[in-house]
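Re: that backbone. Tokens:
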């Protein structure tokens, strides 16, 4: 088990190095291409509109009272996603993907997603930002984040305080390309979703659905995160 943890840590460091290089390269391209900066201004305005119309506002990130600080997470003991899900009583689901690069231009245009929470499909043109939310952005913006290789953890806000503190601690442990959002109208108590690029062209929607919370859910989310993060149909740092 110690060797497996060392291998996982080495892979994580290598992945972060590659991703940092990719972010730097993308930023250089943006600086060259934007010129006068008009596109940046438009993007900033679009983001403000997104947060306002998507159920959050400029204070929508940070967790607030929904995901308070003060929790802790146990040390990881399970590193296999199928085993971790089974031990936690969670279900792994796959959905055939579609809608890659198929954008809506208004948050008034709602998409009827096959899964709840959603995993793939047509989506809003501006993705939701990474982070911890006390009010969830629109599904259409969140699905765009999934397309960019993000993993989203969805939590019923009525779960006990200790559970929500633990979810916050889990996010703080490794927040790279992660979003945590409250969601009342779903069957599982906690879920995680991703949108993988394979097979092309539409990829595959992935779901970890946990009907109840126990400590094993922490490793189920960790293994799901490590399995699917950075693997979206659009490779965006």
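Recovered sequence:
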């Amino acid at each position: 088990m110690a060797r497996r943890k060392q291998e996982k840590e080495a892979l994580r460091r290598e992945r972060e190095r590659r991703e940092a290089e990719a972010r730097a390269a993308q930023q250089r391209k943006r600086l060259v291409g934007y010129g006068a900066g008009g596109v940046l201004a438009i993007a900033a305005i679009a983001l403000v509109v997104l947060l306002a119309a998507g159920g959050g506002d400029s204070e929508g990130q940070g967790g607030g009272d929904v995901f308070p600080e003060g929790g802790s997470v146990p040390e990881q003991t399970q590193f296999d996603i199928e085993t971790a899900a089974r031990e936690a009583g969670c279900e792994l689901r796959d959905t055939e993907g579609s809608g890659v690069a198929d954008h809506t231009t208004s948050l008034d245009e709602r998409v009827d997603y096959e899964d709840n929470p959603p995993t793939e499909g047509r989506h809003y043109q501006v993705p939701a930002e990474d982070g911890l939310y006390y009010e969830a952005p629109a599904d259409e913006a969140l699905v765009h984040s999934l397309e960019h290789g993000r993993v989203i953890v969805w939590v019923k806000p009525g779960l006990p305080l200790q559970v929500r503190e633990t979810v916050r601690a889990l996010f703080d442990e490794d927040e790279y390309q992660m979003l945590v959002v409250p969601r009342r109208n779903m069957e599982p108590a906690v879920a995680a979703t991703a949108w993988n690029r394979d097979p092309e062209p539409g990829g595959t929607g992935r779901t970890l659905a946990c009907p109840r919370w126990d400590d094993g859910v922490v490793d189920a989310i960790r293994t799901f995160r490590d399995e699917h993060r950075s693997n979206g149909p659009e490779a965006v740092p």
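The radius of gyration is 18 Å. The longest strand covers residues 190-196.
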